[in-house]
Amino acid sequence: MASLASKPKDFEEEIQKAREYYMYGDYSKGITFYKLAIDKLRRYCQTLFDGAEKKRGTECLAELERELQLTIEHERMINEVHENLLGKFIGGGGGGGRPVSSDVYNELNDGESFYNAVIDERPTRDLGFNNNRNPPYGATPFQTPAARFQEARRDVRSTNNNIKSRKATLNLPDNKQKQHDNKRVNNQQNSGEKKYQPTNAEKDLVEGLERDIVQKDPNVRWSDVAGCIAAKKLLQEAVVLPLYMPDFFRGIRRPWKGILLFGPPGTGKTMLAKAVATECKTTFFNVAAANLTSKYHGEGEKLVRLLFELAKFYAPSTVFIDEIDSLCSSRGQTNEHEASRRAKSELLIQMDGVSGALGNDDPSKMVMVLGATNHPWDLDDAMRRRLEKRIYIPLPDLETRKQLLEINLKEVPLDTDVNLNLIAEKLEGYSGSDITSVCRDAAMMQMRRITENLSMIEIQNIAQNLKEQLQLPTKMEDFTNAISKISSSVSKEMLEKYDKWMKDFGSV
Fold it and tell me: Coil, helix or strand for 356?
């Protein structure tokens, strides 16, 4: 279970209430809130790893504890004055003094006014020296309770200033910041933008998910992805067409709720997912295993639930889980942690259970789960079943390799002897990322030739004069040298393994 003091703002309310009760003279309640704030701040400091921040938190904790001691001292003073003065003057006993007037009696719990009124009503006492000269050497001057109260209040005000400065270093929100946040929320509401409103207990988790996961416009087009014709058609059928023909995609024709893209690394699986979100104008949730794990007990499955609640709120949306095998590997293994198993179960329930992501037939509220992996054989059986379409993204063919060369070299000047068809033939067995590396290395050859025998100081001095020389076209020889230095990152054994899994479990 997450700590109550997971954020500094969680205990700022207790600090504010403690000070308010102190200023109103209700010291017992103030002490209660001070102790609660100190306990939360102490637990928060235990979670800090940065040395400087932990030191600031410790100093702030010491200031709060000093403020608590002052409040306890003031409460003791109040009780002491009540016992001594009420017994002496109201009851008429001890010393034969006059009773306190009714006005004073009504102000017994009114803080400073009580002390001042009682001092006015008290009989004078001879302390052995008059007020017109200094007390004798070694004597302690008489200090009235009101003076003691004023002195203690000045101490607390000084402490408040110190706490306020510590609060600023720990990013504790003040009233102005709260007003700014409220104004920002009101502006969002007036602008018509949808904003998910979580409960107070889940606010921090939702803010973290929205900050790390939600991408409104990945800005990747279909034209940026070379090849993958079959995958593009299926993704358009699963995401685009249901938005254009909602009446058709109902019942048994409902859109696919899950699609798996698998294949060798660097073949464009992540690019395809981003192109889906850009072309279809859906909210894109880019999820990694780290976004849905937590060190606190039970928080992993809560993050999964909140993720799908956000996806349904911002629907139509696409939940893309990269390297899905790391999050949904086979259950029941001997080294599997209990928290990991519960998170997997919650993910399966959200995808296909009673409270699943696609519990209705309205395509405008569609939430599609798109997974990508290099190890499809590690997926859990239940997750494989929920990913209804399983598409193999193979290595690029000749035509696709030529398209990749054109996309990567569109801003690079090429010499007339460069033959992209010949280069594409030489790149057989290379993945898309391998081809990008070859193009980048070839484009760097001209710079390497110019700066080969120059020192860094000489390069710095003639950097302005090198601009025109660096824009010289890349030659065919540069591509040949780059291909000789960069090998394919995919082995034949791996390709055979993908082909076998596609025959056993593929679904196009």
Answer: coil
